Structures are given as C-alpha cells and as structure tokens.
C-alpha cells in the first residue's frame, strides 16, 4: 500500500530522482546530504589533529615496528618474554583506526586494504619475524 501511494505521489509531482527497488524512505534529502558531509568533514579535520603533538617515531606504524624488530634482534629473550605478538594488535589499533576513518569500500575508487601503507608495514614486519625465527 505505502509503496503504491508513494509511487503515485512521485508520478503526480514529477519526482524523477527515484531509483526502482529503492524505498523513498532510504533516499536522503539535500539537507541531510549537506549535514552528513559537514559532519564527515568535521570528523576528518579532528582526526588529522589527533597525533599532531606526538613525536614522529610514535605515530608512524613502520617506525614503531622497526623499533620492535630492533628489540627482537638485540634482546630476543626479553622480546619473547614480553609477549609482543599479543601486544602489537592493541598497540597499533588506534593508529590503524585513524587511517581508516576516511576509508569506504563502497566507493568506486577505494584503496584495497592490502595496498595501504600500514598494511604493507605489518606484512613486512611479519615476514621479517618469520625469517628471523629459527625453525
């Protein structure tokens, strides 16, 4: 009933922007689109400020992982005793989340996760970890 009524209203008023199969309840008004974009821009601006007062060595995933790699090579027993493999996901989580704020896999030209710098850094660290471990 509701769908038929909305279709009749659209036909009478000339509502041309409707996509068949999509409920008009799901369509955003221009005001809602503008409000969403303003909120999104504000969040992105705030996210750029999160690490502005942090030393560069502690907000770059590659540099952090290099420190852990050095630790592992110089003091392997201490590294192993600290259970670093369990700590790294929690340590890197906030850094990765900030980098993913603007990521949208539903956009046409989105970057694959495997192509992101943080993913490559973790992958390299994992490869180096596997190479240096005795078998």
Automatic annotation (TrEMBL):
Domain GCF C-terminal as annotated: residue spans: 62-124
Alphabetical keyword list: Nucleus
Entry GO MF terms: DNA binding
GO CC field: nucleus
Presence of keyword Transmembrane: no
InterPro entries for this protein: GCFC2-like, GCFC_dom
Compartmental location: Nucleus
Pfam families from the UniProt entry: GCFC
Nucleus as UniProt keyword: yes
Biological process annotations from GO: mRNA splicing, via spliceosome
Region (Disordered) residue spans: 13-32
Entry similarity comment: Belongs to the GCF family.
The protein's name: GCFC2 factor
């Amino acid at each position: 009933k509701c769908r038929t009524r909305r279709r009749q209203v659209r036909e009478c008023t000339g509502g041309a922007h409707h996509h068949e199969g999509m409920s008009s309840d799901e369509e955003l008004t221009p005001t809602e689109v503008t409000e969403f974009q303003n909120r999104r821009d504000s969040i992105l601006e705030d996210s750029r400020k999160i690490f502005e007062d942090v030393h560069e060595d502690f907000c770059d995933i590659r540099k952090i992982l290099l420190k852990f790699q050095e630790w592992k090579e110089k003091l392997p027993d201490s590294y192993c005793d600290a259970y670093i493999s369990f700590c790294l996901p929690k340590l890197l989580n906030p850094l990765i989340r900030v980098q993913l704020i603007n990521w949208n896999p539903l956009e046409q030209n989105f970057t694959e996760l495997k192509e992101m710098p943080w993913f490559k850094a973790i992958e390299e660290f994992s490869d180096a970890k596997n190479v240096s471990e005795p078998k």
